[in-house]
Amino acid sequence: MGDPRMLEFDIVAKAPAGIMRTLRIAALDAELATRLAERDGLRVLSCKPRPGGFSRIGRRKNALSRVRLDVALFAHELGSLLDAGLGIIDAIETLAEKERSSETSRVLARLVLSLKEGRSLSSVMGDRPDVFPQLLIATIAASEQTGDMAAALRRYSANFETLRGIRSKAISAAVYPLMLLGVGFLVVLFLLGVVVPKFSVLIESSRGDIPFASQILIGIGKTIHAHPQMMAAAVVTLLITLVWSIRHAANANWNLPVLERLPLIGALIHMFRHAQFYRTSGMLIEGGIAAVRAFEMCGSLLSPGDQQKLLRAVVSIREGAAIGPALQRAGLADSVALRMLTVAQRTGQLAEILARIATFQESTLARAIEVTTRLFEPVLMLFIGLIIGAIVVLMYLPIFDLASSLQ
């Protein structure tokens, strides 16, 4: 096989004259191999991978289910190739050839084969919702009606990069506090597991009265020092739980009710989701999708509670209510958004107004992240300092008492 993306299948088929035939066909999967045989007028009875290739094919299928495509880059490059004058099939073939990941290249090659069969790009992408987001599929479906696919892809890429930039800014702002918290945790663990047990020998040898708080501290230190394996296992378990929680939250698009209840952080997540909702809705409306349909499609970007509010707002809009008041009554539009949506109702520039609302909320979010970071870092440093200071004071307190009794 010249193409590493292809697999070989042994096919048993019956010819129109009733003659049984066996043949070997190279294709991306069994479905395509069957189609190729049927094009030659054969009735396929069985289609099996080559003997000895089951484990390899199973690994390929498992890898294919985990394809991770940079959707923003794909949309940008595809739009650029379309602007350069390439047809949609030639453009996707070009992207498949330049793709380094063999599994992603296979997905794009599968798109090309389906397009050559006469299917639309949106319907083909709809076969792989695990690779192509619903919003991208909807954007392309709308552009297929208007004939402006290149512009629609550019809008999607720009929207995706804007949201990714805000997300990256929030993550960057959280890196330093997390590092500070991690270093503080290690320092406290070192003091309890190493320094406190050594001091306890000196304190207990004095045979003086040890304050109750110092006794508790010494007991904790001795326990950690006596069971280092258990402590190491607890730390590893904590790290694994933390990583799992972050991955779980990311897979759920951070739509977890517990995050909404966190002080400071919950408000920032709420603001980001609203900005994401407005910007993406504006992009879809600009691409030719009706406003109500765009709102429904973008509902998944909101928290579960806001999704229910959006459903009520959509019902009101379908019944003839204005968009601004309907969203405000649902708690999805503040006073600024209401005024801007009222202007959009008069001018008809809803997509542009939604983008401006998103820009306004994103700038507010950026300032809120900066202020929150400036407040949170000193509070966190003060908290860690108080814990370390308390440990040091409780260690030295018996020594101070001993010195006072000697005087």
Question: How would you sum up this structure in a few lines?
Answer:
By secondary structure, the protein is mainly α. It contains 17 helices and three strands.
**Distance linking N and C termini:** 92 Å
**Radius of gyration from the CA trace?**
31 Å
Roughly what is the average pLDDT, rounded to an integer?
80
Classify the beta-strand content into a percent band. 5-15%
Helix percentage: over 70%
> Which spans have pLDDT < 50 for at least 5 consecutive residues?
1-5, 52-65
SSE pattern: EEHEHHHHHHHHHHHHHHHH
- Helix/sheet category: mainly alpha
Question: In DSSP terms, counting alpha (H) and pi (I) runs of 4 or more, how many helices?
Answer: 17
Please describe the biggest sheet, giving its number of strands, its sense, and whether it closes into a barrel. Answer: 3 strands, antiparallel
* Number of E strands: 3
Strand arrangement within the widest β-sheet reads: 2-1-3
Anisotropy-based shape: flat
Protein name: Type II secretion system F family protein
Subcellular location: Cell membrane
Membrane topology: Multi-pass membrane protein
Keywords: Cell membrane, Membrane, Transmembrane, Transmembrane helix
What does this structure look like?
Strand 1 (7-14) and strand 2 (20-27) form a beta hairpin. The protein has a three-stranded antiparallel β-sheet, covered by helices on one side. Residues 1-5 and 52-65 have low confidence and may be disordered. The chain is mainly alpha-helical and 407 residues long. It is built from 17 helices and three strands. 74% of the residues lie in helices and 6% in strands. The longest helix has 57 residues, at 149-205. It has helices at residues 30-39, 54-64, 71-83, 88-98, 102-116, 121-126, 134-146, 149-205, 212-226, 228-251, 257-260, 265-286, 291-297, 304-318, 323-329, 335-347, 350-406, and strands at 7-14, 20-27, 43-49. It is found in: Cell membrane. It comes from Paraherbaspirillum soli. This is Type II secretion system F family protein. It is a multi-pass membrane protein.
